[in-house]
Amino acid sequence: MPLTRRQFLDLTFKRAALGTAGFGILAGGAGLAQAYAPAQLNTHRAGLRGLTRPVRVLLLADLHYGPLIGLGQVRGWIDKALSARADVILLLGDFVDVDLSAQLPHAFLDELGRLSAPLGVWGVWGNHDYSSFGLLSEPNTWPRQRDALTAELAQRRIRILCNEGAMLRPDLFLGGVDDVWGGVPDVPAAVRGALTGAARMVMSHNPDVLADAPPLFDLMLSGHTHGGQVRLPLVGALVVPSRYGQRFAQGWIEGGAAQSPGSKPELAPRGFVSRGLGLTTIPLRNLCPSEIVMLDLHPAG
Description:
single chain
């Protein structure tokens, strides 16, 4: 659904605050250099209930191809992603910051089309994707832009999961929910069809879904926050586009606010938030390097 007036004003205020701080950092050149430095490849190891053998999951979040991110940067990210030799690659939303009503970014899509993994390449939509579809300016035509981009990605063997899922292996299910700000997320629909006992991963661009999610999955994978994009010593992120602020800024996070009566706290859903790759609002990062994330998951009791 479109942003409410309150959400719009809140987002505008946060961007203004980020911009004010950003210009101070940019004046020294450090923020600009960090913004366009090569992305880190960060590996995290964790157990996941339901797995019968390990799986390597690669996360690419928030590419934001458009005015601040060019094709050369995207090409470098794809090269690094391919070098990691993951079992499955997940694209966690905010692919583009361009007007899709004028022309689809075929060169960018061709770069994404180079991605390949034994268990496939999968993705979900983010709020900037919905803006690029024309959600706020073209209320009657934006679904056509979404469908067109979905089809183009499918031709490149990238499947978008929008409140749906698929079995990747007998012991591993992957679901994807719609974006919180632009769409209508439906967690139960996203996990429908999962085999009993299989590990259940869910992609959600916005990590806020985790806070109130029912315990229907084991691990939620998100981006959206950019880790705050601009962080200061002792203070942390100046702005985190989440209802939960620093709690959901980056890394491992815990959910389970809406557990069913009698459920065990240790079975609460868990999440991981990537700092992402691209930029939004201002062309800088500070103490918050861009990252490609490898989750090395193994069976857990």
